[in-house]
Structure to design on (308 residues):
């Protein structure tokens, strides 16, 4: 199936010489939720701004559902909804009229039934006659989503969609994003909340210093790069690791009271049986053991940290 969004060799270098994006290649599948992760200044917002026609790329091509976004920006932009990080809406406008006005900006014929249903889906119906300035931060974020969806786009960009909202509202937003995907909307989000990507994304991309480090199915990424840890609660604390344990990737935690073994769960041999035998031979007893696997956050930190 043809990707709904395709980028080839997209770069952005400013007059100052700063390269914000460095030859990015990326295909987004129709109907997926794609999470773009990266630290501050990594190039996430620059990439979105280029796709949406806000920033002009220095090099590269961008196809939005087959349309050249650089040659025909208006046609391509009409297929995109954008929810930026910052709340950008007339604070004196009414919630209902804000959504209807945005629909008209993209040349869509008025459709009161669609806009009304959109407000209901976003739990904004009771606030339809309220001024935006009267809403909470989370509700303002919902208005931004209503504006972005008012012209029925095929692709929705969410740049830090839950920044500054409380945990309960964040979970509500996750459910909303899931419902939008179920309707066929392709969703691309950037986020600092890695649990957000872990909860919702089908695929994950990691960007740092303008370079796209990897793009991978979330489950595959966690299986390939994820590590497992075995924690042993020791009966007696150790001051240091005995040299006989040098063959295993071990660390002492909790002032020597816990021994942590990090291993690859996909390896043919984990090394656990031989480790336990060696501990027994050394007279190192443990009273409890526990295993855990790395999260998407652990993988992200490792990837970005490895680049210095």
């Amino acid at each position: 199936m043809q990707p709904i969004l395709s980028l080839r060799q997209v770069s952005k270098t400013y007059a100052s010489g700063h390269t914000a994006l460095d030859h990015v290649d990326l295909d987004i599948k129709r109907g997926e939720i794609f999470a773009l992760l990266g630290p501050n200044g990594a190039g996430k917002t620059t990439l979105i701004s280029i796709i949406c026609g806000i920033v002009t790329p220095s090099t590269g091509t961008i196809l939005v559902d087959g349309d050249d976004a650089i040659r025909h920006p208006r046609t391509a932009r009409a297929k995109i909804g954008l929810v930026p990080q910052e709340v950008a809406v007339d604070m004196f406008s009414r919630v209902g009229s804000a959504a209807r006005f945005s629909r008209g900006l993209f040349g869509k014929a008025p459709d009161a039934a669609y806009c009304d249903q959109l407000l209901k889906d976003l739990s904004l119906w009771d606030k339809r006659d309220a001024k935006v300035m009267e809403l909470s931060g989370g509700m303002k974020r919902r208005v931004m989503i209503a504006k972005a969806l008012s012209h029925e786009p095929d692709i929705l960009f969410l740049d830090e969609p839950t920044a500054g909202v409380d945990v309960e509202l964040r979970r509500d937003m996750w459910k909303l994003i899931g419902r939008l995907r179920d309707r066929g909307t392709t969703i691309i989000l950037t986020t600092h909340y890695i649990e957000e990507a872990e909860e919702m994304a089908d695929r994950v991309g990691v960007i740092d210093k303008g370079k796209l480090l990897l793009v991978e199915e979330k489950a595959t990424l966690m299986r390939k790069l994820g590590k497992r840890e075995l924690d042993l609660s020791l009966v007696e604390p150790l001051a240091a690791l005995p040299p006989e344990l040098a063959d295993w990737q071990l660390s002492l935690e909790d002032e020597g009271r816990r021994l942590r073994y990090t291993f690859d769960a996909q390896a043919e041999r984990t090394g656990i049986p031989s480790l336990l035998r060696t501990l027994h031979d050394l007279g190192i007893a443990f009273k409890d053991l526990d295993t855990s696997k790395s999260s998407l956050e652990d993988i992200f930190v490792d990837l970005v940290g490895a680049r210095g």
Notes: The mean pLDDT is 84. The chain is about 30% helix and 25% strand. The first helix runs from residue 44 to 51. Residues 204 and 216 are 6 Å apart (CA to CA).
